[in-house]
Input
Amino acid sequence: MFTKSKEIILTIYPHSDGPYLGFREPRRRDEYKLSLKEAYRQAVLITATKIAVRTKQLKKEQGMRHTKAVKQARREFLGRP
Output
């Protein structure tokens, strides 16, 4: 979704068939809906891809072992110790 402004209005719809997120720009009627299940799946996929790319980068640039590079990448993206 491409927006002209930096602001997005987020609406949560708690329907019986599953909760949905609604996204729209201020002063616009067009609204895009996304189920929470799909939003969670997309967030996990994007984060996993970022971790994999960062792991590869750490292995190549700093010569880290795979397990150490994965731990470092997870720490950077997930904020875990």
Notes: Residues 9-35 form one domain. The chain has two helices and three strands. The radius of gyration is 18 Å.
